[in-house]
Amino acid sequence: MKAVVADPLGGPENLKYMDQPTPQPGAGEVLVKIEAIGVNFIDVYFRNGTYKAPETPVKLGSEGAGTVAAAGPDVDLPVGQRVAYAMARGSYAEYALVPRKLLVDLPNNVSFEDAAAVMLQGMTAHYLTRSTFPLKSGQTCLVHAAAGGAGLLIVQLAKIAGATVIGTVSTEEKAQLAREHGADHMILYTQPDFVAEVKRLTGDRGVDVVYDSVGSTTFHKSLDCLRPRGMLVSFGQSSGVVGQFDPLVLSQKGSLFLTRPSLANYVSDPAELRQRASDLFTWLADGRLRLRVHKTYKLADAAQAHRDLEGRKTTGKLLLTP
Ligand code: NDP
Q1: Taking residues 239-247, what's their average pLDDT?
Q2: For the whole model, what pTM was predicted?
């Protein structure tokens, strides 16, 4: 089969489109024939070594949709069943091995492309807004990189929950896109003081929660945007890692809460995973959730997709097709 691997670790130029042996499913595993592949920033971290993988060359891609090609001896899933998943590495390929417990059945009214566009970032938006800090009507959240893959989905799920959404982005075009997806107020955080603007918009109170995927350039200012006892959910680092942090700062800035969650810990229970995916498929079907696909690239062009994502050139989702 054809696959894209990182060999060696490093920049996008190290992505190799090559022949690899088609894997065979063992106990608890399913071989999925991939029809659509989701691109995520996590793929960049495995490509450049920020996140460590045990194998060489490193397999890439943590999200996909397709059909069951073969099932392990103890797995009761028919060949041809439509499925989708997130958080199993190796989807940058024509076939991928996926643990059964990470697969969800794909309803007929959800396309492979939509599934590959919603599983990872959509379930992330779901756990951030429903479990990590369950947003309620009347609350206000701040969403950084609000026109990004995770960002546009968090904006929409926060609106479904009835919250007020303040978003940050780098350009006016991205601000407009986030508004079109429901954001109430947009700030260009590339201009000096987004903290003052958040204070102004909240009548000096601060927001209840900040969903921060940007990391290095926003982390400390995000703390200044919170109300007393508010929560900073630091869930990514598209601008670079946050580094050392003294918890005493949380006390000084108003008895704040800080968490650094990962999707893996919010979908480890298969019932919870299915519930999150089912909510997303329902909202897609009834029109409350809209997907924006920035571009669909050929698998062989994965390096260009990475360049565009890292270069802040994209909005919404990037897809690959094998
Ligand atoms: P995005 O689509 O959000 O792309 C990254 C965006 O970050 C850019 O478009 C850009 O938006 C913004 N950004 C700000 N500074 C920089 C910079 N210096 N370089 C590049 N981008 C920058 O990506 P994803 O939605 O895939 O992921 C965002 C982050 O969230 C990643 O760190 C990812 O790993 C993390 N994540 C974490 C999860 C978890 O469970 N913990 C799950 C999913 C994602 P702008 O131009 O508007 O500033």
Answers
A1: 96
A2: 0.98
| Domain-ending residue, one of 260, 285, 302 | 260
Closest alpha carbon to 292 in 172, 166, 156: 156
Residue 126 falls inside a structural domain = no
Task: Tell me if 213 CB under 6 Å of ligand 1.
Answer: yes
Residue 178 lies in a domain: yes
Angle, CA of 157, 185 and 146, to the nearest 5°: 50
Average pLDDT, the chain: 97
Q: What is the pLDDT of residues 91-140, one digit of tens each?
A: 999 999 999 999 999 999 999 999 999 999 999 999 999 999 999 999 99
**Could you say which of 210, 231, 260 is where a domain stops?**
260
Instruction: Note the pLDDT tens digit of each residue in 157-177.
Output: 999 999 999 999 999 999 999
Residues 270 and 247 in one domain: no
Domain of 142, in residue numbers: 137-260
Mutate to test the pocket of ligand 1, among 62, 172, 213 (most ligand atoms within 8 A of CB): 213
| Ligand 1 pocket member 316 (CB < 6 A) | no
Domain match, 254 and 283 both: no
Q: Is the pLDDT of residue 192 over 80?
A: no
**Which of 250, 258, 252, 206 is closest to 232 using CA atoms?**
258
Using CA atoms, how far residue 8 sits from 144, 200, 319, in Å, is 32, 48, 23
My answer on whether 224 and 314 are in the same domain is: no
User: What is the domain-level CATH number for residue 211?
Assistant: 3.40.50.720
Contact 57, 48 (CB under 8 A): no
Does 111 map to a domain?
Answer: yes
